Amino acid sequence: MMKKWKHWLLPTVLLLSLVLAACSNEEPEEEAESTDTAQTDNETTDDNMEQEPDEPATGEDEEETNNDEHIEHQLGLSIGDTATVVSSPDDLTYEVTINEVSYRDELENVTLYDDTFVLVDVTVENVDDKTFDAADIFTPAIGELDSEEYVPAVDSEYLQNTSEITMVEGELAPGDSVEGTFVFDAMQVEQYNLAFGHAGDQITTRAEWEFNSDEIQ
Length: 217
Hints:
By secondary structure, the chain is α+β, with helices and mostly antiparallel strands. It is about 25% helix and about 30% strand. The chain is built from 2 helices and 11 strands. The protein has helices at about 1-50, 60-65, and strands at about 75, 80-85, 95-105, 115-125, 130-135, 140-145, 150, 170, 175-185, 190-195, 205-210. It has a 5-stranded mixed beta sheet with strand order 1-11-10-6-7, with no helix packed on it. The chain has a 4-stranded antiparallel beta sheet with strand order 2-3-4-9, with no helix packed on it. A two-stranded antiparallel ribbon has the order 5-8. A hairpin with a 6-residue loop joins strand 2 (about 80-85) and strand 3. The longest helix is centred in the first third of the chain and has 50 residues, at about 1-50. It is globular, with a radius of gyration of 44 Å.
């Protein structure tokens, strides 16, 4: 009977040994597999962080800078010079060129009250990004240099029937320009100052031209 028991016990022990050996071999493989997976995930995350592109620029900073650009006043200009004027409150931006200045003793259908008519031929160019009427630009004034007395240009309604005067008017799209004449009923002096806005005016950017009477045609 003892032999039969031993004969049964030996196969059982061998079977248990094989089962334990198989379990011992599987556990490290699972642990190794888990470690490899975690390492791969970490490497993928690091690569994504390194390859993540920078956020694209929105252009808002550049636009804000452009909108905030300030144009300085331009003073002491001469006949023939061009200046940039920015009117308030509409912030119309345009360039003004003084082409020539002339005297007139009389004009058709216009009454002279002071010494002489001073005619200022100008070119106005729209350098803004919007369309506006040339008649809406700042009304210039003229006075004796270094004085505080200025007279504005004669109102356009008084010049409607004066055929020899071309008005500064008409719709100007960006880049368009118009040539016309401003008329002043002024004193005759040695030195003049023509101002598109002077120190006492509410204007964003002003421009002033200086010239002598011998420069006037």
